[in-house]
Amino acid sequence: MIALEVLARWAHLALSVLLVGSAGSILLAGRSDRPTALAWETRMLDACRGLAVLAFVTGVAVLMLQTALLEGRRDAALDPVALKRVLLETRGGHVWLVRHGLLLLLAAFLAVPLDVRRRLDWRAARGETVLLAAAALGAGAAAGHAAAQPGTLAAVAADGVHALAAGAWAGGLIPLALLLRRAARAEGADARPHAVRAARRFSRLALASVLALAASGALGATAQVGSVAGLVGTPYGRLLLGKLALLVPILALAALNRQRHLPGLAGEAASVGRPAMAGLARFVAGEAALVLAVVGLAAWMALTPPAAHAAPEWPFAFRLSLATLDGAPARAVRALVGSQVLALGAVAALAALVVRRGRLPLLGGALVVLGAGVAIALPPLALDAYPTTYVRPAVPYRAASIVAGAARYREHCAACHGPAGAGDGPAGLRLPRPPADLRGPRTARHTAGDLFWWITHGIPRAGMPAFGARLDAEARWDVINYVRALAAANAARGLGPAVEPGRAWLVAPDFAYAVGPTPTRTLQEHRGRRIVVLALYTLPGSRARLAQLADQYPSLAALGAEVIAVPTDAAPDALRRLGAAPRIFFPVVTEGAADIVAAYRMLAAAPHAEILIDRGGYVRAISRGDGRAAGEPNALLAEVQELNAEKVVAPAPEAHVH
Amino acid sequence: MRAWKAALLLNLALLLGVGWGYAFWGLRTTRLEQDLAAARAGATAGAERVWRVAGVVRAIVPEINVLVITHEDIPGYMPAMTMGFRAASPGIHEAVAVGDAVRFTLQGVPPNVVITAIETTR
Predict the structure, then answer these.
(1) How far apart, in Å, are the Cα atoms of A203 and each of A44, A173, A284?
(2) Is A544 domain-assigned?
(3) Which end of chain A is more exposed for a tag (fewer CB within 10 A), N or C?
(4) Do A124 and B54 count as a contact with CB atoms less than 8 A apart?
(5) What residues in A contact B69, CB-CB < 8 Å?
(6) pTM to 2 decimals?
(7) Looking at the predicted complex, does its ipTM rise above 0.90?
(8) B13 plus B62 within the same structural domain
(9) What integer best gives the mean pLDDT of chain A?
(10) A656, part of any domain
(11) What is the CATH number of the domain that holds B96?
(12) Does B64 lie in the same domain as B8?
């Protein structure tokens, strides 16, 4: 089914592109009164009409297949009710209606015989053809992947430009080849100046189009692929790589045409001009065949989920990371030397492009130097990598998951890795390699996907067993979240009660809480809106500090901070225990407190702790105490104001996988 | 007809079509939204309403006869929050203490609403 729809979309896209190119090449070549040129123009107009009808027919096929795909049943393709629903109730359906209305209009316009002997009439008639064809092709962008993204308008515009540039250049190749072939024949001599002019204009247009294609394609790829892992590890990214690979011979052919054939066109007819023209026609036709394959890949991509939304499967056994250089001066020196050699090679390669004499030896030398640079610089940067290295965690980093992971950890991991993750478990002594210390910076160097691979498949040479069969995927992600919290707990020892301006690095685990029967809220809901002061309190010691917080609550609220108080004993009647005085109006958690306490006590184990979480979702300061009132009552207000004064906003923690 | 006139007419027709389509769909959406807003306003404005709401008592201020309650969503009036409400009679607050989970009856013409009844739920 999918294969059939890819084929239908390929045909539809290729026909639409060819339609724009044919209509455009007539306008580009300009008006001529030579019989051969007129014959070509008539032929092209007939072709446009036929292409419009064919594009319409294949479009209907695409619609039917898409309906079957959306409905999940084959017979929906012929079900008028289902078709009507797709057409009238989906965005893709609306765009389909507009595009196919334009195609019909174009076919009708081309069927009307018009008098175009005057120049204005000719331009209006041919321009209208181009306009309708381009609108029908470009409008498709409004239903593509780009239209499903935030920040839609710019992305859709870039997609539209991409389609139109493809139409102007790729679609114009075959019409141009036909014109050149006619003019290269002995009896087509009358149209030769016309063909030469058309080829030169087309060459300029093609250059502009290729630049526009590259720019809009790069924009689209950043939005839809976004990462190297997405490019090499997902079907969408691999299709894009295939497209880029096909582009190399196409551009080589184009460069050859521009350099070799184009200058010869105006040469003496029999010996230079006509052979050059015939050669150009052949090469352009070859270019068109490659372009057809590129269009096929583009149609396939339209039906593939974008890489940014797929779980990438890393195909290599290594990845490159600057993190390997931390604390390894020898590696850093080698990488630095290698990068200098690379720069030298790049300079030599640039020089080879500029100089005229000795270009080939220079280029060869540059390539050797570049190769040497790569060989020196990259090995120290390489880290082991696995197919799941860039997979995003399936379970978010939140308190409930950390608590569930802690239980799994005690059961399956603590024997070797130690109760606190220090790698000092009793069973670890017998292993071929000492178990990893999970608290340290070495954990942070690896991605969550690396840990997922090790837990699932084990590390045989180190004696680590595989847990893929014993723990389901969710449980393994829970363990990873707990390990991440272990590393965070170790790092959090460096955080004190004062905010370090501009330094946000410790992600606060998300949590859910409720006060009495009110709806459950989460930490994440406050992101981008309010600073959160998470107060873990223990009665009776914390009473004085809670009274102080209650007193300051209006000021904190005015500064954009919410206080969330969590009883460390997780008592369900916490509010009653606090009593009527002082009056406390900030949320006191009665549901979900146990998970919050378990997760956040890893960061701050004191009887009374206050954790300051900024609007980006990062822990910025931790004060640990016994709940006495603060000596400097306004200290917390000052820290909150410090966060308010910050301009730099760190990326959201989801984008920050360790 | 001259070809340029035909092309011009066609483009005008297209523009008209796009404009008409925009006007039709756009105006219909606007009208629907207005109707919806009017319906919402009509349902609430001027009429006395009654809600049964769950919450937790956070503070009692007997001097001004006010109960501060962290409450759930009050549909059509306000989202979940911590807020003070006047009691209809002085005796109402005596039945509850701070920290009690309660269910109370809120009655009146917004924003002048009072608690007319309250009981603890746990």
Answers:
(1) 19, 10, 11
(2) yes
(3) N
(4) no
(5) none
(6) 0.75
(7) no
(8) no
(9) 88
(10) no
(11) 2.40.50.320
(12) no
